[in-house]
Design goal:
Elements lengths: L6 E4 L13 E2 L17 E5 L1 H8 L7 E5 L8 H16 L11 H11 L4 H7 L5 E6 L8 H9 L3 E5 L7 H13 L1
Parallel strand pairs: 1-2, 1-3, 3-4, 4-5, 5-6
């Protein structure tokens, strides 16, 4: 919690909440946590496919949302899989950040279903002042330059930082700045 604001994080694909600092969150990629209640929050922070998750849920109260490298442009499963493989090897995501192997089949099934959620349509339907999108300038895998153009074309708030797709200190700093300013 920051200044008595209830903040909840929804991690990117194959990652757990513990990778995102001190934020409370929902481990949506762990099969044994998949049925947990989702608490109401003042802010939802969603990284990558975590954004698809929150917009696919009807039981999440969406007050203010911070999206980190969301999947704005919809892609087929094959394209998404190839991008994830290249991302994994290019950005060098630490193996300790990835959920245990016994959750992979569950996570893949969830990814397959969530990729059908149209994040851009959902964001456009929200009041513009309730959504901020943070994009890593070096994200050429999921929230790439084409996605940034789409975000700007729809007059949505976009903050670009020196980062790739994965959560890092620059993204964390941008999130903290947003939370402190509101």
């Amino acid at each position: 919690m920051l200044n008595d604001k209830k903040i909840i994080i929804f991690p990117g694909a194959f990652q757990s909440v513990k990778n995102y600092g001190d934020y409370e969150g929902v481990d949506i990629w762990l099969k044994n946590k998949s049925k947990q209640d989702i608490p109401n929050a003042d802010y939802c922070i969603a990284h990558s496919l975590g954004a698809n998750f929150i917009f696919a849920q009807s039981n999440i109260q969406k007050k203010k949302i911070i999206l980190i490298n969301p999947l704005i442009k919809r892609r087929n499963v094959f394209n998404l899989f190839l991008r994830w493989i290249v991302f994994y090897f290019s950005e060098g995501i630490e193996k300790k950040k990835i959920v245990p192997v016994n959750n992979w089949i569950f996570a893949l099934g969830r990814i397959f279903r969530l990729r059908k959620t149209n994040v851009l349509d959902a964001v456009i339907k929200m009041p513009k002042e309730d959504v901020v999108i943070i994009r890593g300038r070096k994200d050429c895998f999921f929230c790439d330059k084409e996605s940034a153009k789409i975000i700007k074309k729809n007059d949505l708030t976009l903050i670009e930082v020196e980062a790739g797709h994965d959560w890092n200190e620059k993204i964390a700093e941008a999130v903290d700045n947003i939370l402190k300013s509101k």
